[in-house]
Amino acid sequence: MIIHKHEVVIVGAGGAGLMAALYASRGGADVAVVSKLYPTRSHTGAALGGIGAALGNLEEDKPLWHAFDTVKGGDYLADQDAALILAENAVDAIVELEHMGLPFDRTPDGKISQRRFGGHTSNFGEKPVRRACHSADRTGHMILQTLYQQCIKNNVNFFDEFHVVDVIMNGDACVGAVALELSTGEFHVFHAKAVFFATGGWGRVWQITSNAHSLTGDGAAVVFRRGIPMEDMEFYQFHPTGLYGLGVLLTEGIRGEGGILLNRNGERFMEKYAPKIKDLASRDVVSRSIYLEVRDGNGIKGSNYVHLDIRPQTVNRYLAEAGETRRIDDDYIRKNLAETLDVCRTYIGVDPLTEPIPIQPTAHYSMGGIPTNIDAEAIWDAQGTVVRGLYAAGEVACVSVHGANRLGTNSLVDLVVFGRRGGMKMAEFVKTAEFLPLPNNPTAQIEAEFQRIRNAKGKTRIHELRTRMQKVMMDHVSVFRTESGMNQAIEELKELRHLYMTDTFIEDRGTKYNTDLMEAWELGCMLDMADSTALSAVNRKESRGAHSREDYKDRDDVNWMVHTLAYRETDDPYAPTPTYRLDTTKKVDTSLANEDERFLPKERTY
Amino acid sequence: MDITFRIRRYNPEAGGKAKPYWQEFELKDVEPTNRVLEMLHRVKWEQDGTLSFRRSCSSGICGSDAMRINGRNMLACKVLVRDVVTGAKNTIQVEPILGLPVLKDLIVDMEPFFAHYREVMPYFINNDPVPANGRERLQSQEDRDIFDDTTNCILCAACTTSCPSFWANGKYVGPAAIVQAHRFIFDSRDQGWKDRLAVLSEPNGVWRCRTIYNCTPACPRHIEVTRAIGEVKLAIQRGKREGIIDPATIPSKFHG
Ligand SMILES: Cc1cc2nc3c(=O)[nH]c(=O)nc-3n(C[C@H](O)[C@H](O)[C@H](O)COP(=O)(O)OP(=O)(O)OC[C@H]3O[C@@H](n4cnc5c(N)ncnc54)[C@H](O)[C@@H]3O)c2cc1C
Ligand code: SF4
Ligand code: FES
Predict the structure, then answer these.
(1) Which of A284, A539, B152, B168 has an alpha carbon within 20 to 30 A of A498's alpha carbon?
(2) Residue A224 burial (10 A CB sphere; 0-12, 13-18, 19+)
(3) Percent of chain B with pLDDT over 90
(4) How far is CA A148 from the centre of its chain?
């Protein structure tokens, strides 16, 4: 066991982690970043379309309008105080990214260029607005690269390929983390004043996903297992445009540029479901519309997918119909959607310039996660009691700014805004806070669990359990949900957990780069994410945003303007039959609605 | 179809027997449009859990899984089986990238690669105060486009580890580091360009490039690596960065 001591330890080196690292170190803190991947491998690099901020570079825009879209897009479950901070801070945060050198595309007068994106409107839903700042269609890549570059410039300490497998608590305070060094198999203790979780999402819980193989929720799970709740786990977003069969994401930017969804009859079906804003409606709305089309036999060839058409002749026809003067051609698409063309050709051999793209909804983004306040401090309960020393931001966290459904471009905003706030807050905290002592032998429990997994002599392959989990979650805890389906999933998850604890084996008994062992570990963590998702979902008896039930079709603002907090009750983090408890007393913040009735919940029409 | 993987294995913990060797795996029911990475997963998940390789995004953007497939560097997640199978047994040969120490199977030590990356000051430098209005610095789209190509780099190391000059001398910074330097040298907002040109004019800088041209076809992001290196060479020779890149010839972002 090797012990390191840093004032701030950041777990995860995606956009949220690097932003926090940068601002904490600029604030004078001694910072270490611990990441299971090399920082530039983080999934932030996959974000395509853009990052939203009311810069107003091309037309009038206001943070309040951005906050409105965020709240409305989130089906009124977003905390309105946090949504306003998101929208207001976004402007400064994005300008600062430009100051760090991020190569945004430019307007004719040299400012950051902006484009339209689903769900973003001006003047409280009046019409689509150009708000998404972009760098070709690889905005996430440029954010990740730029932040990593600046961290190098600032001499931030990096522990690359260190996999965090536990948080260390001293009473109710977090005092560090345990990581397994992948190249040696050794356990390291990171003693800290502040630990910041920025480990991203857990799309790999589902069968079809846009998420990287590494997105297994293990960061969230280790926190969860130490008694910190998970907030709003039932809200998991399915992106409407995943490449058919693979789940690889096609950016919303395609529809932003004029791309149209068509069913087997060549009908632009979004006209039915969102007459005003059509193909640019929120993700949950579009995903559900595709699901309904498929259910009604309108999928292509009667199958479970539809077409996304970006061919200039199609786009121009609809632009003309809408009375717009803008027209596009092949070159325009080549320039603005290069990544999309590349993906379609490489992965399914389809050329979007000459044929429509087959798409289906894909598991994409977790709105829920570690509950935090607006300064990225993790909280214990519905009253907002802060967990001393523990912070979180990015996809792993739930502030909540995304409510029941995240708007496109708002995740990147979330990363930079709350990563930055958290970084500053930690810099301030560590100036006066002491290092609290580590408990005795902080790695004993986790080392024992790894021994168990490594030496297990059962008959079931990890891969088999993982596939079963992914399938049952896709079938019963995805775009459309019913009581009986979800209960079935919960039962199956129990069985999978039982097998996981009693009947698995791995083949690699080595210490160095034992990816077999790490995949087995990650599966255990995913089961925690799946459990808390399914339990929170079956408990919420309404439909809201991404949580859509066939047996409770309507939103219920009387009973359900609350967040769910799921707790793992069992003290033993590796208990074979964990029990859970749900708390639904945390009320949604509606502070904007108190002053402006446009923020009151109303039916979402697009 | 059925395919055969021929994979270069190395287990550092095999005691005295720790030598690299070839191992074959057969896979049934493979779709020609399956990707090599998925098939490596099938080997690992169905046949041999000890097979070790890096991967994450599985969509060609994270740069984890550069490998030598049939003797050429590629990202395993971006290659379809049908494009690389050869011979009667539909064989695909997979080895670690060359020129970096092999740690286990397909996993190599990336540290020397990142050390070279850090040598070129791969970060934006501008010491002027930010605009008084608190807003962004201005840049024309044309100035932005000049270095667009090299902003695509995902640090996968496919270029550097395909370069004979790098194989011969690991001190050479390598194409990837030059690509990263290029991205800043030609950014009109950046002020560190002279220092970077100085670093790259050292003996282990750009002049180790013999224009062998392995790097450009190896790049999964279709960056015109050799061209970027040439532009940096020219900037060093002329001692300036203006007028080196003709906007009219900027590589198209579209790649066939
Ligand atoms: C294909 C795709 C396109 C997207 N496009 C957009 C877009 O256009 N706009 C937008 O706003 N959002 C977009 N998103 C969403 C957005 O990219 C992600 O939500 C966001 O990047 C998550 O960032 P993060 O910093 O929270 O985590 P990530 O970038 O996922 O980083 C997680 C980090 O945590 C580390 N880590 C994880 N577990 C551990 C552990 N146990 N120990 C140590 N380290 C660990 C990883 O190594 C990694 O460094 C997209 C997502 C996808 C999948
Ligand atoms: S230039 Fe291309 S091949 Fe070289 S590291 Fe960058 S992305 Fe990889
Ligand atoms: S797995 Fe990310 S580039 Fe291949």
Answers:
(1) A539
(2) buried
(3) 92
(4) 20
Residues paired with A48 in a beta bridge: none
Q: Is A61 exposed, middle or buried (0-12, 13-18, 19+ CB in 10 A)?
A: buried
Is residue A167 classed exposed, middle or buried when 0-12, 13-18 and 19+ CB atoms within 10 A define those classes? buried
Assess whether the region B3-107 and the region B110-249 belong to the same CATH fold: no
A509 catalytic? Reply is no
Chains A, B: CB contacts under 8 A, how many?
165
> How far is B45 from chain A, CA to nearest CA, in Å?
6
Residue range B110-249 in CATH 2.30.30.40:
no
Backbone angles phi, psi at A271, to 5 degrees: -60, -30
Q: Cα separations (Å) of A494 from A488, A564, B113?
A: 10, 21, 45
Residues in chain A: 606
pLDDT confidence tier of residue B256, bands split at 50, 70 and 90: very low
- Collapse the DSSP code of B104 into the 3-class scheme (helix H, G, I; strand E, B; otherwise coil) and give the result: strand
> Sign of torsion, CA A177 A193 A381 A600?
negative
Ligand 3 mean position to B239 CA, how many Å? 38
DSSP 8-state secondary structure symbol assigned to residue A106 = B
ipTM confidence: 0.97
- Structural contact between residues B158 and B75, judged by C-beta atoms closer than 8 angstroms: yes
- Say how far apart CA A290 and CA A250 lie, in whole Å: 15
Where exactly are the structural domains of chain B? 3-107, 110-249
Which residue has 């749900």 as its token pair? A582
> Can you tell me the distance from the alpha carbon of B91 to that of A586, in angstroms, rounded to the nearest whole number?
58
Considering only CB atoms, A45 lies closest to which of B54, B62, B114, namely B62
Structure tokens at A403: 């409510």
Q: Which CATH number does the domain B3-107 belong to among 3.40.50.720, 3.40.50.300, 3.10.20.30, 2.30.30.60?
A: 3.10.20.30
CA distance linking residue A550 with residue A304, whole number of Å:
19
Q: What are the two backbone dihedrals, phi and then psi, of residue A250, each rounded to the nearest 5 degrees? A: -110, 130
